[in-house]
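Whether sequence alone determines local backbone shape is best considered at the level of individual chains. For completeness, the protein is quoted in full, as a sequence line and a line of structure tokens:
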Amino acid sequence: IQASIDPESQSLVSSEMVSVDKYKDIDVQYKSESLFLRIWLFIKSLFSSTDVKVLYNAYLVSARGKAVEKKVPHLISASKRVFFNDFYAQIEVLSKCAEFFKNGILTYEHEPGDFYVYLSSLIAPEVVRQISEEVNPSNLSNDREVTNVLKLSLVRKLDNIIQSMPSVKRSGLYNAICSVEWLKHFVHLPFSRILSSFKEDDGELVCYFDSVKTEIGQLATILCNGKCIEHDVLEALYAFSCMGDSTDDETFAVKMQKYLEAGSSQIALIKSFITTVPIRSIGVLVNNEALWFPQTPEGCEDWFIKFKNTWRKIFDCQWNQWISDRKKDV
């Protein structure tokens, strides 16, 4: 199914992380500051009996708070350490986006290996075609003797085809799987807990930083490490979740197109949040730590093992079916 989707519009890479601070140690950053600022903080530390590093951290956090309030008014109050109704509305939008992808992701989580194989039929169809032509025992002649040697030779051929997958295709499949994994993490983010933490105060919904400290960290971990959700990923999510449904090809194509368009709209909404809301800076404010940095989400390094194992299961089913069919013909 063809769809005119601009790859750039599907990219959820955070510009905040692209232009990340070059300093990871507050002492090193402090030494790079102007002499005037260092003298001012030193004098302030003498009168307040507070460590210079603590004062410097507070100075940086305060500056970050003012920058966020200037960039996105009505989102937070850094001094009061609260989120306002606008942040609630933004999280509500993300929650609805997560709900849209939930069904496909739950299906994917149930059988990730099967999903990888289906995804490979979209990204590396020539590899799937080669496996079907050279490994499927049903393509063998009827007079071929059934032996363990034959089975082993087909298994080795299957393994060689998979291992010899062109690097471009393998890389493309890996990136697509990483995108699905990112969506999986996104769908399971604690949106409901964040929304339920908002309480009405003088006619406005507010939420104190400290009440959602853990949740903001989880949010930043995923949204600061976005991926590019490509057309093949959306198509696979829909098609894989519909397997087994009794729908004719024409109806399926129409529904698929609608899903792709709706999915692209959801991606655009997530992208809008990532580009509008400086979630890493908010993490800095919530944690009151100037050089706070979100964690890196878990990867999908075991994908290739699951991919190979699923192909082996498919082969075993084909082999058993082939033997069963031969017995019927006898």
Q: What stands out?
A: The chain is about 65% helix and 5% strand. Residues 249-276 form the longest helix (28 residues). Confidence is low (pLDDT under 50) at residues 1-5. The first strand starts at residue 76 and ends at 77.
